[in-house]
Amino acid sequence: MHDIKHNSKGLIPHGMSACAGCGLELLIRKVMDVLGRDTIIIIPPGCAASFSGFGKETAIKVPGFQGNLENTAASAAGVRAALNAKGNTHTTVLGFAGDGGTVDIGLQSLSGALERRDRIVYICYDNEAYMNTGIQASSSTPYLAKTTTTPAGKPTARKNLMQIAIAHDIPYAATASIYNIADLQRKVKKAKDTDGPSLIHVHTPCPTGWRYDPSKTIEVARTAVQTGCWLLYEYQNGKATINYRPKELLPVENYIKLQGRFKGLTDEQIQEMQKYVIEDFNKCIKRLESVA
Predict the structure, then answer these.
(1) What region does 254 belong to: left with phi over 0, alpha with psi -120 to 50, or beta?
(2) Fewer CB within 10 Å, N side or C side of the chain?
(3) Could you tell me if 165 and 191 are in contact, meaning their C-beta atoms sit under 8 angstroms apart?
(4) CA distance 24 to 19
């Protein structure tokens, strides 16, 4: 038991075939450093499937399995129920899925697990499109971002996963970003210790799909927060806390100019995006302050 509880380093081996600069690879390593060996992980098809592997091969040194794209939370709930039946209340059950498998195809099973109060940790690594199958738009793709299915830019805003989770009034939900590892790991520890369902929605830049230099991953993630395109906050036992609120938002152009998926926007579109980001940021702040 000593090794299970404390030997948590190196659970994701090096030499993985993730894209250079992949935000997901950094994320899964830092998550597993916190959760440790006493974890069962459920991963659906997607970018993270390169870690769960295929056949007898895997790159994760904890038990788990690769389910279907739509049932990550349901699978996690089933594992949790089996552990409970055996009297095992110490093993963490982790659902680890992308935005396509969470805010789109997997939303129904996630909602069911949250409503039932299943004690699982669910992490959505959000790279804002179906990156593993050709960079198609998801409902988490931001406004005006180009994908292979929205080549002229996505005409609608992204879905707000956190507000959906908060509407279920679960014990713990949080946003996070890979640029702030200390904040991320603090939230993963809180999720692990939660008696009930917990959700962490992590902004996870993708150099391949967002079309930026792989060396800029952390800069892109940081600029998203500085411009108000991503807000760090958490919801715990009915109360919301804003973890970081810029004194003054940087222009949204600082963020989009780093990425090829926004290339070719007109000045009018950039102004339109700036207006939308500010309005959405202020609306979110106001909503959170009402439950602070």
Answers:
(1) alpha
(2) N
(3) no
(4) 9
